[in-house]
Design goal:
Length: 329
């Protein structure tokens, strides 16, 4: 069946206007951080969740809150702490002595965008409750299952500096995050603008520039972005190379990778590449789209060995070597 690239391009250009509108509105509050904003948009357009890692003070929370305001989505911030209980997140049943019956009080998870701040500070029971919501888009309270609102998106942050009072996230939960974005310090020029903008404690108001209906239409357009068979093969080879680097003549990587990326990485890499093309206003995926999101999709799925850690290698450096070793179609 022939693919009408021109028709797809026309629709993508029409629907992707919301990207520029959101970027412009968010830019009124957030200085720089274009990488983070784009990754938030990719996850939002693909109905995925995102894990954000960075030191304190890099506007991670502010970026998420501002994005929610620009699309008119309900937003809840949950501060994860070691004494947090599952019921504090999902909700619980409350007994009414006057009526002699229980009624359900829904928790903060019942919102469109959930910011799980310092997610790795909560114990395993809370992570399990969050995992059901992330995967099934539903919450079980007192034997009854309640669907979560659509869209539903979890944006979790974690601080790479402190390890006291933290719990490593289970691999199964990490795999549910479509992307892991690593946020870095602003540039010299950006920090100067931040200082000038905020030294007088000026508050910037953000307006809704996109409706949830427009967001859903954009999601539909992202799914139509064309991904040809050659690039599908390229994506599969990239993932396979993290599992069996010797098969791709990368013998030096074999002792450095304990576990390769999961099949979810294959699916998410294709979806994220489509969204990356959509953000650029294109109705077709190019190899650069795949490369542009490869680290975000795989850095939390490729588990490195102690030998790699001893050599001070990071998952990002391993993924760079995989990208160099797999032939581009």
């Amino acid at each position: 069946m022939a693919v009408d690239i021109e028709a797809i391009n026309a629709r993508v250009k029409q629907e992707s206007r919301l990207v520029d509108a959101v970027r412009e509105e968010v830019g009124r509050v957030i200085v720089g951080q274009q990488y983070l904003i784009d990754r938030l948009l990719i996850a939002l357009l693909c109905d995925g969740h995102i894990l954000i890692e960075g030191v304190p003070g890099l506007a991670k929370t502010l970026s998420v809150h501002t994005l929610a305001q620009t699309i008119g989505a309900s937003f809840v911030r949950i501060q994860f702490t070691p004494d947090l209980l599952p019921a504090d997140v999902t909700g619980t049943q409350i007994y009414n002595p006057q009526a002699g019956e229980f009624h359900t009080r829904k928790g903060p998870l019942f919102a469109n965008i959930i910011l799980a701040d310092e997610v790795n500070r909560a114990p395993a029971k809370v992570q399990s409750a969050l995992l059901e919501a992330m995967q099934e888009r539903q919450v079980s309270i007192g034997g009854t299952t309640y669907p979560l609102p659509a869209p539903f998106m979890v944006l979790a942050t974690q601080n790479p500096i402190e390890s006291e009072g933290t719990y490593p996230l289970p691999e199964a939960q990490l795999d549910r995050f479509m992307l892991k974005a690593v946020v870095h310090y602003p540039t010299l020029q950006e920090e100067r603008v931040i200082l000038e903008r905020y030294e007088n404690s000026t508050k910037f108001e953000v307006s809704q520039v996109v409706s949830l209906d427009e967001l859903m239409a954009a999601r539909s357009a992202v799914q139509e972005v064309h991904l040809n068979d050659q690039l599908r093969g390229y994506i599969v080879h990239l993932i396979q190379a993290t599992r069996d680097p010797r098969a791709y003549r990368m013998e030096s990587l074999a002792p450095l990778i304990a576990f390769g990326a999961s099949p979810r990485a294959t699916i998410y890499l294709a979806q994220a590449a489509k969204a990356h093309a959509f953000i650029d206003g294109r109705g077709y995926v190019m190899p650069d789209d795949v490369k542009g999101v490869a680290k975000d999709v795989m850095r939390h799925r490729v588990i490195i060995t102690y030998e790699a850690e001893a050599e001070n290698l990071t998952p990002d450096e391993i993924i760079d070597r995989v990208l160099q070793g797999v032939a581009v179609p």
